[in-house]
Design a protein that fits this description.
With 253 residues, the protein is α/β, with parallel strands linked by helices. It contains 10 helices and 6 strands; from the N terminus they run αβαβαβαβααβααααβ. It has a 6-stranded parallel beta sheet, sandwiched between helices.
Length: 253
């Protein structure tokens, strides 16, 4: 799925970059995980750094479509399962943690690859955003408007035709339910987690908690509701990235 043109661009980048950072981003269900593994295996000596804010959390596996050990194909992964669902994660905290890991990967002579779809978390790292205490989002969003290309940064965006993207989201949501998403949330409730815990902000988890505790709506309507919200989120993701001239778009179909 990696085009010859993209391979050539990557080879040029790797020759000139002193401390390379590869980023693979894209909307939910676009196929980032498979592309990242293919590319990491092709490049060799590559370690993946998670940039999906939901996959930072332990116990949220099915609903976040978290990569499995088998799918990793022995490619090292970082910043997965590092937080308890009651712990708060912020873009400022993530930036610090990701930069530490990226520095460690560089110190081993390996290539860090940032992979995920959390827009602000990725921008915090790639654009060097700052987050002043109690100052809201105005400053980091203003900073993002003035970022410049870097010889050490190569960003690949995964895209698909709109109708196909929407269909993939619907299909994946249904598949997550078949894999046991409701039971995963039941287990979270048994462990003592509630609607108020930070991890439950993740798409679908609060809705499924309500479904378990109230019995409404029907599961069919619940699946449709979560799919709709996920499609809306995917649109926001693409709006965030569309105007970034640094992104090399790879359109899959």
């Amino acid at each position: 799925m990696i085009t010859s043109h993209l391979q050539e661009r990557l080879q040029e980048f790797m020759k000139s970059a002193s401390q390379p950072l590869i980023v693979i981003l894209g909307p939910t269900a676009s196929g980032k995980t498979a592309i990242s593994i293919d590319l990491a295996v092709m490049l060799g000596n590559t370690e993946i750094v998670n940039s999906d804010s939901r996959q930072l959390y332990k116990y949220l596996n099915i609903g976040t479509a978290k990569i499995t050990l088998e799918e990793m194909q022995d490619v090292p992964h970082h910043l997965l399962d590092i937080l308890d669902p009651k712990e708060e994660a912020t873009a400022a905290w993530y930036k610090e943690e990701a930069q530490k890991v990226i520095g460690q990967i560089h110190s081993r002579g390996h290539i860090p690859m940032l992979v995920g779809g959390s827009m602000l978390y990725i921008s915090a790292v790639t654009d060097g955003l700052t987050f002043p205490a109690n100052r809201g989002m105005r400053k980091p969003l203003q900073e993002r408007k003035h970022v410049k290309p870097s010889e050490n940064l190569f960003i690949i965006g995964i895209d698909r035709p709109r109708e196909e993207m929407m269909r993939r989201i619907d299909d994946r949501t249904a598949e997550l339910f078949r894999k046991g998403w409701v039971e995963e949330v039941r287990e979270l409730l048994r462990r003592g987690y509630t609607h108020e815990d930070p991890a439950m902000k993740s798409h679908g988890y609060r809705e499924i908690m309500n479904f378990i505790q109230s019995g409404t709506p029907s599961q069919e309507k619940l699946v449709d509701s979560i799919s709709k919200k996920t499609r809306q989120y995917a649109k926001r993701q693409m709006t965030w990235w569309r105007g970034d001239p640094r992104i090399e778009w790879l359109t899959l179909s």
